[in-house]
Design goal:
five-stranded parallel sheet; 4 helices; 5 strands; alpha/beta
């Protein structure tokens, strides 16, 4: 079985969590989202190198844009938020709406 995961925030914590999901979480697709596309792209490239397979992809995302976050979460099996705590309540509500497991 394979899973689709979304990481909100592609900093150090996001990359570490994504690595664990790719290594131990049967990930088929990992979407690394960040306000800065270059950060997300660099994180995805690093993760793909570490895992030895092209599982990670990058996307620019502003977590305060609830419509965009809802769209990104749609169809995901799980999501991890590594963004500023002020976005947590909105992200949690969106994950519940989309029926996505989230931390």
């Amino acid at each position: 079985m394979s899973y689709r995961y979304v990481l909100l925030g592609a900093g150090r914590q996001g990359v570490a969590a994504a690595y664990d999901l790719g290594r131990f979480g049967e990930a088929d697709d990992i979407l690394l989202c960040d306000l800065h596309l270059d950060v997300a792209a660099s994180a995805a490239a690093k993760l793909n190198t570490l895992l030895g397979r092209p599982v990670a992809h990058a996307q620019m995302l502003d977590v305060f844009d609830t419509r965009a976050v809802g769209t990104v979460l749609k169809g995901a099996d799980g999501a991890i938020s590594g963004v500023h705590y002020t976005a947590n309540l909105a992200v949690t509500r969106l994950a519940i709406e989309q029926k996505v497991h989230s931390t």
